User: Which sequence fits this backbone?
């Protein structure tokens, strides 16, 4: 019997692997800076079944505004569901996929919106500086509590890719293979500049109140501008040309000074949308973690650090990426210890940086093959 | 006697052609929108001597934050003095160089900070929308009053290049030859997006007060962010790598969360500096003029408009320019009526867009030759 759309749906439905989301308390941690967070919770999504030999775990690391819902469920699909699902490029019938919201985030893991047990109030601006390495240490502790001692693979894009590289250097004995995507050993000065434009927009918003804003009255305008800044660097002009060109938003073309281009209304909408769901202090915490991240710190520089990386690596870069330029991906590939399994995949996409969140058929097959 | 440094200085001093700055009242003008400005003043710098046959006038058009002081004097050098001076690539002993602050500007020509004669108060937010074509019409009227009926050449970069192209289309009978540099027939959606990030930063600043701010209490924070946004697009990452790399500003490295990268302090300083000298309403007026500028409007599109351009043209583009990408310069060159004298000069510079303000030895010889 040929498969109809309906029977295919039914089949997919039946095969669907259930997502589980839990909060794991990992107790107190001491940060790289020496600051101590007395109680840290980590929100974790797991999809699939951990094999009895616990050798099929794949860790996923999210980007700046991502969260632990990489896969999600049918009703609320995660940000990487196109890549990871039952029968997908990362097949959840084969792999036990774990995603955690990072330390300093605002989607369930301890961060600036969490209650400081010592004061009974939200940390807000008193939340300490956290590094990408701190984020990785927290993930490691969480995995230990979950009884997972080794990871078959680790995969992540953008800020997530920074965690992926750090995992390979901080816990080489636990890591099978890694897939950093559209990321960097350290940010370019231009990327730091983009981040600072967003930062200045947030801290200049009078609603920010030096980070002591009320949760009901957050600095949405500043955060929206920061997101607009981000969005322009996540995409490309070719895409904007194709989608919007110089078209005006309908209905307000009477007076040229009131004219709004579609690209403008699109970005303003994206800014507003993020500002409604994301915490500004958390955004600042993660920006600073990215800016200050340098895998070469304390390891004799980037070159020496990458030479220490021993596990097989699949580096994926996007040629049109203006935030994490392709030369940074080539550098990572070139400087790690040579292994026949290592691979550099260069994808061309008018989505630019965001291709790692959208171009599943471009990046998926290589990921599938490299994991298997 | 061989020339010593001193005698050379003395010689230069002697040869120096004096700058003259004057304000020309051109009366009332009706804008493209139909709005009327009852009294318009234009500040004009002239350097050199107008020939008796009045056939040696060269008009210079400035960019977004430029002004009429293109040449300036020895004590206060203008923004294009490296190109234009006695004995320079644009030789003020040969050419009579005229530069005007544009309509809507804030450096002497009528704009939002000017007094509206009908109210006795500054226009501020009530200053009407002006187009690039309006700016050109005002320049034309001003030149008529100065007794200059024809221009040997017109030269300008960035927004100035938009005026240059419009001159060639609006007043072909008055224009000898034109040199648009690092400019566009119309902005890309990405350039519009960059402008809107700056715009949102300005209008979100509470000091902006919907444009009705007091001159003593302007929205400096918002304007500074807009300038930071601009600066990143005016330069290149290669330049930032070379100048700042990931170096931290000295003296504040104790706590990573307080760390400020040199690229950040540089941009913040540039932002602050512009905010102290430029008017926010004027900035918004000029951004909107640029966004809405389209040489194809009312002329059957860009292709048809460029095909109408009859005068010889030297198009100069910078390969690393991310704001006015090189493909826009190539398009202009390709679509204008073919003439043997036409030329496309592609310059490679790590200054990116700002090369037109800095790389005089790269762009100067071609300009000199094309004008002669």
Assistant:
């Amino acid at each position: 019997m040929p498969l109809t759309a309906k029977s295919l749906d039914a089949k997919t439905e039946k095969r669907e692997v259930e997502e589980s989301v839990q909060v794991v308390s990992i107790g107190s941690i001491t940060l790289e800076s020496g600051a101590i967070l007395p109680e840290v919770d980590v929100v974790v999504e797991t999809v699939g079944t951990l094999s009895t030999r616990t050798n099929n775990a794949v860790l996923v690391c999210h980007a700046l505004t991502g969260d632990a819902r990489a896969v999600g469920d049918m009703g609320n699909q995660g940000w990487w569901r196109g890549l990871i699902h039952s029968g997908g490029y990362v097949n959840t019938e084969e792999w036990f996929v774990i995603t955690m919201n990072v330390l300093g985030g605002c989607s369930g893991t301890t961060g600036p919106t969490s209650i400081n047990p010592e004061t009974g109030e939200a940390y807000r601006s008193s939340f300490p500086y956290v590094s990408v390495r701190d984020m990785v240490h927290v993930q490691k502790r969480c995995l230990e509590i979950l009884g997972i001692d080794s990871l078959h693979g680790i995969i992540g894009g953008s800020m997530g890719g920074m965690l992926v590289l750090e995992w390979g250097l901080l816990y080489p004995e636990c890591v099978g293979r890694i897939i950093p995507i559209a990321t960097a050993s350290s940010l370019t000065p231009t990327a730091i500049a983009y981040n600072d434009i967003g930062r200045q927009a947030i801290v200049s918003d009078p609603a920010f109140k030096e980070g002591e804003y009320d949760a009901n009255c957050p600095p949405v305008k500043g955060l929206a501008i920061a997101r607009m800044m981000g969005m322009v660097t996540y995409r490309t002009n070719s895409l904007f040309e194709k989608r919007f060109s110089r078209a005006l938003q309908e209905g307000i073309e009477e007076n040229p000074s009131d004219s709004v281009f579609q690209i403008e209304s699109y970005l303003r909408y994206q800014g507003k949308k993020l500002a409604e769901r994301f915490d500004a202090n958390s955004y600042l915490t993660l920006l600073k973690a990215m800016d200050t991240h340098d895998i070469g710190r304390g390891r004799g520089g980037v070159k020496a650090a990458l030479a220490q990386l021993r596990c097989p690596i699949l580096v994926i870069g996007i040629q049109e990426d203006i935030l994490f330029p392709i030369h940074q991906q080539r550098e990572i590939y070139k400087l790690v210890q040579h292994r026949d399994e290592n691979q550099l995949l260069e994808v061309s996409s008018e989505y630019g940086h965001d291709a790692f969140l959208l171009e599943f058929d471009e990046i998926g097959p290589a990921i599938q093959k490299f994991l298997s």
